[in-house]
Each structure stands twice: as C-alpha cells, then as structure tokens.
Design brief:
Elements: E1 18-25, E2 32-39, E3 54-65, E4 68-82, E5 93-98, E6 103-107, E7 111-114, E8 117-125, H1 132-141, E9 158-167, H2 169-174, E10 180-189, E11 196-201, H3 206-211, H4 226-231, H5 242-257, H6 276-280, E12 284-287, H7 299-306, H8 322-332
Antiparallel strand pairs: 1-2, 2-9, 3-4, 3-10, 4-5, 5-6, 7-8, 8-9, 10-11, 10-12
Helix pairs in contact: 5-8
Length: 374
Amino acid sequence: MSDHFSGPAVMTDPSVDITDFYAFPSPERPGNLVLIMNVFPLATEHAYFSDVVNYRFRLRSLSQNGGVTSHGTAEHVIDVAFDDLQGGISKQTGSVTTSNGYPARFSVGETFARDGWRFFTGLASDPFFMDVEAAIGTDIAGKLSFRKEGNNTVQFRDVLSIVVEVPFAPIVEGFEGNTLMAAIAETVVARRGKPIRIERLGRPEIKNFVLQSPAHDPRTKGLELRDLYNHEDAFALSNEYRPLYESRIDANLAFFDGLDGSVAWPVGENGRHPLRDLLINDFLILDLAHPFTAGSFLEIERSMLAGRSHQSSGGRWLDDDILDEMLSLYVNGGLTERIGDGVDAPTKPASRTFPYVREPNKRTDLPMPAFMEV
C-alpha cells in the first residue's frame, strides 16, 4: 500500500510511518519546488507528529550516462521537527531548518509563508489510491487479479501531511546549475555523526510491492527485508545487505514479468533483471528545467530505458496513478496494453493551489482495511 505499514518496525509507531512522498514543480508558482511527506496511516483528529524524530527531505544532483544515473555528494536538506505537547496544549508547534541555514517556526494546521517559502502541516485526506487486496491476491494466485472497477483501500482515510514549497534556484545553484536531481523523504533520530534512520522513501511501492513478497526467491525466502531496507541510506546501500535486496528484487520483478504469459524483460547472468539497478536506487528523479506536468511519474526513467531524452519534470504528482504505471512497466515493459488495478483517482483530487493536499475526511465509521485483519 504505497509505503503505508512498510515493515514491522514502523507499525509500532504510526507517527514515523511514511505513507507517501511527492516531489514536483509548483503548478501554481513556477520556479518553486514542492515536497510532500505524508505519515501516520489511518490518522484521526487525535493523531500527532512525533516529537523525537526529524522529518527530513534530502536532495542530490544526478548525472545520467545512457540508462544509468549517478548522484553527487552535495546535498540539500530540509529538516522538520515538532515540539512536545505539554500542559494540556492540543496544537503542536515546530521548526524547520535547511542545510543552507534557513530557520522558521510554525504551528500545525496553519499555513506559514515567508521569503518565497510556503509551509503547511496538518491532517489531510490520504491522496493515495490502490486496490491493495487485489495486489495481494495477484501475488498469492500468481496471476493478475485486478478488476475493471477496483476498491480503493484507503478511500476516505486521512494522514498527517508535511508540505514544503521552496524557490529552487538556490538549490540548483548549490548543485552547480544541475536541474536533474534525486529526492527522498526520511524519518530519522538526529544525533552527532550518523543519524539513526527509522524509515525512508523515494519511489512508491518499492518496499510493499517490489521488495515485500518472500515467496519467489529461494535465497531470501522467509526473510523480512523491509526493516533492513528502511534503515539504509538510499545514497549508500550497505555492501553486506545489498545482495539480499538485489536477489529479492530480481525474483519479484521476474514474477511480475510472467503475469501476462510473455517475457518483456529477459533476465541476464545470475538472474539479473534489467530493471534492478534502476529500482534499487530508490529515489524520485525529477528535472526542474521542465515545468509542472501531471502524469509524469516514471517518465524520466522510461525515457532512460528507451535511450531517448525525457520531456517532463518527472517526480510524482499527488494524482499520478503510480500503480498502473508500475504494473505496466513491470509486466509488459509499457509496450502493450496498460495494466491497472481499476482504481484511477484518490478520495479527493488534488488542488492546484497550495497546500495541494485536500481537507481531511474525518470519518469515524470506517472499518479496518481487510488486509490488516488477515
């Protein structure tokens, strides 16, 4: 389910469970970059952000050589921290700081604006949409089990949202003019030296769709890899565990490829899948030289695979149908019919004006999702 409940560790504290991450040029104010991190699946009016972790956005420049990207070492970081609730106060406050020294204070539920920045935190309608039960059924049955009209598992659900909009010219300048960049979101415990990473997210459905199932890879069968993967630095995977991730990703991608009875991605030596290197580098890729374009999720990656120049900003917009894009790429290479789960829109379509996320549903009559009751 995108990144909701993406491992046993984060399920013990929903306030650090990143449900989704979005990065796109502002459709309202050209020249600005929007970063959105949603946390706390199934949030209610009584949900609060954690006061012991930093909610962190990280950006690095990318260079491209054929179908391979490499990231630089220079990094732009935006840290968001929340204060503890004391003395019966029900509204949280917090602070945001950046690697270039920009500080600000804010209150949850209110929009903050200064020096071209805009900032919002608070309860919002969950913008994700997917038929999770049909995806689980596909893995169990070994065949495509999606319906023409699917059921949105997170219909009418809410999340806690962090929305940051910043002028991107200073970021591009810090990357020596490079507009192609990688973006990730993390929840970390800050400390001197290396932070303790609780969870991180680049592309959606890498952990819960590509990495989760242990059934197709004899080498890693029975292993829960998502917690290990969450603790890793997206820009520096450990040499010790990387072979396990690669083996699981190779096997599961080969499983997806076989769901339509044909092979779109012939595997290489030792079962190496052609998409492995692209997907294990788990970050959103966006190019700020291009204006906002809805529906451009994976456009840069697909262009790289095809050996052509990309035509969009890439990244991820709130209403992008990411599962249909990923299914079509994995199953048939995106070359034949589009494959989907029958769910094509969120509970509430995104706004083209700040803060882009929509007002919460505040439903109290919803049962637990069926997949959580298994």
